[in-house]
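ok so i was messing around last nite and threw this chain in just to see what happens. nothing serious, just curious
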Amino acid sequence: MADSMIADQSYLFLNRIQGRRFDEETLRILEFSLVAMNLNSLSEVRSRLRDFMRSESSAVLGELTGESIVAKLSVLEFFARAFALIGDMESCLAMRYEALNLRELNSSSCLWLRVSHSEWTNFAVQSMENGFPSIAAKASENALLSLEKDSFLEPKSEENSEMLDAAEKVRRLRDSAAFLTSAHSVQAQGAEYLRSKELRILSRQTRPVKNSDCTGSNLFRDGISKRNERKLQHLRSI
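result:
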């Protein structure tokens, strides 16, 4: 009975996504189906949901062309929360990054959309904590740009001092993210080199080896050749 109810809830969630029902009720249905699921099937279901949601999110974002900024941000927030529930933090962060960028791009005409340096910084920290230093580095750069804008808007000495401290913290975060990104890149290159080296060694080891032909006829011919050489050497010595 319980399994049937969970299956119904999962099916209902998929139907609501395909019906473009991006609301709190849909998220509650997803959360309920995941919480009620047994551990044996949870991993597999999450994997399937991740693939489904990634596919649907790509399609939905393509459908949002021409929609208002508010509508786009609402959908991005929905998918970010849904991916977080599924456990797909990479996609969750991608949705949040998309939303922050969308706000920043439209902030010149709508000041309330402007992303504060603290929002960028918090996002950078979250990205680092979840193992995505390259995203954290980009967010840190945006945080620094936001701090530069704020320093012009608020020239008071006390506030400037706070901004300088905040900027220093963001720079350290950015440098750490850049270092980790570089380290991951070097590790990837090293792993690729080792794989190619192993393949070359394996290729050499598996090449067909030409075995010497040890048939009786060859041995007989070799014997005659050696005997003739000995005769020739004897004649030369006379």
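not much to say yet. The chain has two domains: 1-109, 115-200.
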